Input
Amino acid sequence: MKTEFSLTQLADPDIAEADKILRACVHCGFCTATCPTYVLLGDELDSPRGRIYLIKDMLEKDKPPTQEVVKHIDRCLSCLACMTTCPSGVNYMHLVDQARVKIEKDYTRPLTERALRAVLAWVLPRPGLFRASMMLARLGRPLTGLLPAAKAGSASPTLWGRIKAMLTLAPGGLPPRGAAGGSVFPAQGTRRGRVALLQGCAQQVLAPRINQAAINLLTRHGVEVVLVKDEQCCGALTHHLGRDADALARARANISVWTAEADRNGLDAILMTTSGCGTVIKDYGFMLREDRDFAAAAAKVSALAKDITEYLGGIDLQPRQQLHDIVVAYHSACSLQHGQKITQAPKELLSKNGFVVKDVPESHLCCGSAGTYNILQPDIANRLRDRKVANIAMVKPDVIAAGNIGCMVQIAGGTSVPVVHTVELLDWATGGPRPGLN
Ligand code: SF4
Ligand code: SF4
Output
């Protein structure tokens, strides 16, 4: 694609990067076929190619985003299916990230929307506040039936629709807190490795059992696990809201504490059980490439970052359970399959450890979770969830496994089949407790 940035504009490293990305696009349109919003809405401006043109125009003319541009960028899930499909290697992720930052900086949203986004950006990365808000939301859940329903087929979110989505997503109850930052879990038997395990923010409130399963599994197989003290939210949530200063501050804080831990006691890897976080941590090196003080350390942290299933693939897990034909529908989270290109490892681990693993039809399509998307765009998110759940039902599973808490909550909202994390099944198969299966 031909671009027309001036030399002055190209002196900005972000614009130079955008220019490189845009020039790689040959506008073939292959990406439209796998874009969930294009598949649902059929509007070119809700496709990757359409959005690329909108972003190009906005950046080249250095003009404030229009309401129309914001509408179509906001509808993008950042699922990155387009990057998997694109034959030219267009890095849509870095392009849309820039567009979101520009929108956040140069566009004034209506007051209620600004307030909602500010609340999400403040509450979600703080587990204490998130826990309190979930308890409040639980009280408000009986009111969801009184709130107006969205118009069938609508893709335009309303404030009431968003409030309803928040209340609906809140769980009926919260489990007790999991292990605190600063805890170290020694390896059983001969130590073969030492890793940090990301504590996550929403996950540690909604499902601390996931990291507990990861700790049990790793220590049982000779890996020492540390929950690094003073670790923060990885920044993914605010990064996707275009609040780069907040996201970068969190990235720097995490890089500092993980680097200190690695220097002091050694770390073979930094593991994530939430793939949405993994995609962003693996991108720290790029996000901080212009930061003289942090660029090198950020690149090292990104190189150490691994999804738990990537790491477990290098360990000879020892199955200890006789599993009797338990059919697992494996839901491939977008952040894992498109963001990190991890597609086979989770399924292979499950099969090797005795489960009957089934691929879900249309597995490339997002479930609609996408960070805060299911709150900010509930109508599209619900349609994607229903489509995902219908596809999952086709393989008649006993259980659904996923590697991302956002997907787990989203899918569980549309099915009675139990939804668990891949690592919970692996823990069970190798001697841990049976996860919440019927
Ligand atoms: S598939 Fe790639 S090159 Fe083709 S239009 Fe989409 S982003 Fe551009
Ligand atoms: S990230 Fe997902 S929703 Fe956004 S343009 Fe690409 S495929 Fe479409």
Observations:
- Strands lie at 184-185, 193-197, 223-226, 269-272, 305-307, 327-330, 356-359, 399-402, 419-421.
- Residues 244-265 form the longest helix (22 residues).
- The CA atoms of residues 162 and 368 lie 14 Å apart.
- The chain has a mean pLDDT of 94.
